[in-house]
Design brief:
The protein is an alpha+beta fold. It has one domain. It contains 5 helices and 8 strands; from the N terminus they run ββαββααααββββ. Strands 1, 2, 3, 4, 5, 6, 7 and 8 form an 8-stranded mixed β-sheet that branches. Strand 6 and strand 7 form a beta hairpin. Helix 1 runs antiparallel to helix 2. The longest helix is centred in the middle third of the chain and has 10 residues.
């Protein structure tokens, strides 16, 4: 369990949960230091967290730090979305807790027969990161993403990655 995190769960105007990440741990205008993110994620290994909606327990296994930081989907991320994924690592417990809208998919790749023998689940998540100008908080950017969970041969579900990170655009008031 990683301590001293400044994370809150709030609801938007539609009553949907957003994980509010108050502190930017992984800074950098250009590049994120993914080795630092990987080291941070190792602090969760062996923990588990519960999805509030379904009471499913999601475990953090040894594969998460490597997959989270070295996957092709992560390497394709640039700019704001890369920084968002890096800082989402600081809110793993809350992101799991607020995950919703599960979608099941059978495992189709032989290389995942051990770690996803019982298939994959994808859950919707939302989180917000602060935006500062001249050290003053001016707004929060909200992101949507998908938790990728593998259902292993041992019957446990493990967080495998966070995918499809996309900044939400504001909607004009009607």
């Amino acid at each position: 369990m990683i301590e001293n995190r400044n994370i809150n769960i709030i609801k938007d105007a539609d009553g949907k949960k957003i994980v509010l990440i108050n502190d930017i741990v992984f800074k950098g205008k250009r590049n994120v230091n993914w080795d630092d993110v990987k080291t941070y994620l190792k602090g969760y290994i062996g923990d588990f967290y519960q999805i509030e909606e379904s009471a499913d327990k999601i475990y953090i296994g040894n594969e998460l730090p490597e997959e989270y930081t070295e996957s092709d989907s992560r390497k394709a991320l640039k700019g704001t979305n890369a920084k968002a994924k890096a800082n989402a690592a600081t809110a793993i417990p809350e992101l799991i807790q607020t995950a919703s809208n599960p979608e099941y998919q059978e495992n189709t790749k032989e290389k995942h027969n051990k770690d996803a023998k019982n298939g994959w689940y994808r859950y919707d998540i939302r989180f917000a990161l602060p935006v500062y100008e001249d050290n003053v908080l001016v707004r929060f950017n909200i992101f949507g993403a998908r938790l990728l969970i593998n259902h292993a041969k041992n019957g446990k579900k493990y967080l495998y990655d966070i995918l499809a990170i996309k900044k939400e655009t504001s909607k004009p008031q009607q």
